[in-house]
Amino acid sequence: MLKYLSVLVFSCILLSCQSAKNHESDKSFTSENLKILKIGDQVYQHTSYLNTESFGKVDCNGMIVFSGKEAVIFNTTTSDATSAELINWVKNTLGCQIKAVIPTHFHADCLGGLAEFHRQSIPSYANNTTIQLAEAKNITVPKNGFTGLLHLQVGHKKVLTEFIGEGHTPDNVIGYFPEEKIMFGGCLIKEVGAGKGNLEDANVTAWPTTVNQLKTKYPDVKLIVPGHGKNGGPELLDYTVKLFSAQ
């Protein structure tokens, strides 16, 4: 009896320690202007806010992938001040050097806080079309361009950024972390139940075709972070296709 009691006590201690370890590893963060949520072993979602005339206060998502002492960030926050807050969190809480920031298209919800990344000498990468559109708008311009597919290493892990086709904008790209099958869909992908949103620069005819091509290319994706709203699984892709197929 004493033997079984000892085993039971040891098991409870082990579970308690494991629970404490898991809680400690979740370094999620919330402030007035920024929310950071752990969504994978090596992935966080960041959310900042943009005040708009048409849609009011809008939550704007990005994604952080980290491995070892390095991190890559998809999308800046919506302002330089909030970007400074995000950068400080990655450096001080994750203990990571930011290897790259990647705005996924040229709108303010993706690169509104890019100047702060540049001020802190953090490399920025974007679709060459994003660079051209940012230059035409006379806003802060990402410094390194690519066409098609960009491979980056974070620690010993691979992170992909790819232009599949037009949709929300002519330049929208997605980010993908194959290690955990987590995708940052950006504004190309809608949360389930969302409306069509800002169509000022959209190609609504190409949009469902682009997302269907995305589904074909990344059939194993498990979790998707949209540009706005709640993350989810492949049902976000299906919803987006359905939304823009009904013209």
Automatic annotation (TrEMBL):
Cofactor annotation: Zn(2+)
Oligomer status and interactors: Monomer.
Name of the top EC class for this enzyme: hydrolase
Protein family: Belongs to the metallo-beta-lactamase superfamily. Class-B beta-lactamase family.
Principal place of residence: periplasm
NCBIfam families the UniProt entry points to: bla_subclass_B1
UniProt gene name: bla
UniProt-listed InterPro entries: Beta-lactamase_class-B_CS, BlaB//VIM/IMP-1, Metallo-B-lactamas, NDM-1-like, RibonucZ/Hydroxyglut_hydro
Protein name: Beta-lactamase
Record-linked PROSITE patterns: BETA_LACTAMASE_B_1 (PS00743), BETA_LACTAMASE_B_2 (PS00744), PROKAR_LIPOPROTEIN (PS51257)
GO cellular component: periplasmic space
EC numbers: 3.5.2.6
